[in-house]
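Feature request disguised as a bug: please show the residue count (312) next to ATP-binding cassette domain-containing protein in the output. Example input:
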Amino acid sequence: MIRVEGLTKVFRRPRTFSGPFGALRTLVTRQYEERTAVDDVSFAIDEGEVVGYLGPNGAGKSTTIKILTGILTPTAGTVRVNGMVPWRDRSANARRVGVVFGQRSQLWWDLPLIESLRLVGSLYDVPAARFDASLRKLRDLLGLDEFLDTPVRQLSLGQRMRGDLAAAVLYEPPLLYLDEPTVGLDVLAKEAVREFIVETNRTGRTTVILTTHDLADVEALCKRIILIDHGKVLFDGAIDALVDQPRRLVVLLESAPEEVRGVSRDDEGRHVFDIHGDLPALIAAISAEHTIRDLSIEEPDLESVIKGIYAR
Ligand SMILES: Nc1ncnc2c1ncn2[C@@H]1O[C@H](COP(=O)(O)OP(=O)(O)O)[C@@H](O)[C@H]1O
Ligand SMILES: [Mg+2]
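Example output, currently without the count:
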């Protein structure tokens, strides 16, 4: 459904000078600064997948999504979405994808939500019967009724997000891009957004690409993640494989030796052992040689695994 190969985006912007006559210098020198936001990224996503596209601020997530939706043109690389080149077949592509940017609403601020949705329906040529059926389903799923007649500018962030999600799937696109859809939402609103994504994927077999800072989103929704940093892919694969690592025994020893049984002391003065077989035997072996001041067992969790990948 999505094929991305060697995708690269370099932003060029005029180099700016400060100080007296800075603006003039900026104008006459015409020097440019280049920033590679997406750097030789390749991946393929199949129909029905929910993929988490993750990375720290400035990693290149939004830029990738903007290229996939056809808003931006890449510097290099090839992209096929539903067989189309998004930035070339822009309007045809737009009908087959839904997009939500959490940071910015796509709705019309001054219109009541229902009018915004009707406008989306007519822009995308949704037949009246299909529009009604779709709206009925979404009112239910997203609990839109209490604010359908409220102008978008008066909606709370959580309500606005639910409105944006409704607008994005009203024409039943097979593919949905969600860029930080839970940013700034409270726990309940996040839960509503997650339920909506699960349901949309399950009933419509909608393919979802999701960027988020909230790993609870990822754990609730994604089987697969693509991790990027500085525009490059660091990891692409199943979360299960990532988290399928041994539990670890963390010990703090009285004498804090440099090394114990092949394990070096970490920054916090602890020794961290992978637990493979017999835990009591491991503890006994350590305490035969050292006095244990404190010990704990760490389960591998997504957050610590991802931190580990970025640390490398
Ligand atoms: N329109 C633009 N012009 C210049 N630089 C940009 C532009 N958009 C994004 N960037 C830069 O590209 C990098 C990646 O940005 P972005 O894709 O928004 O990251 P993310 O969504 O992962 O936080 C950042 O360094 C950002 O400053
Ligand atoms: Mg972003």
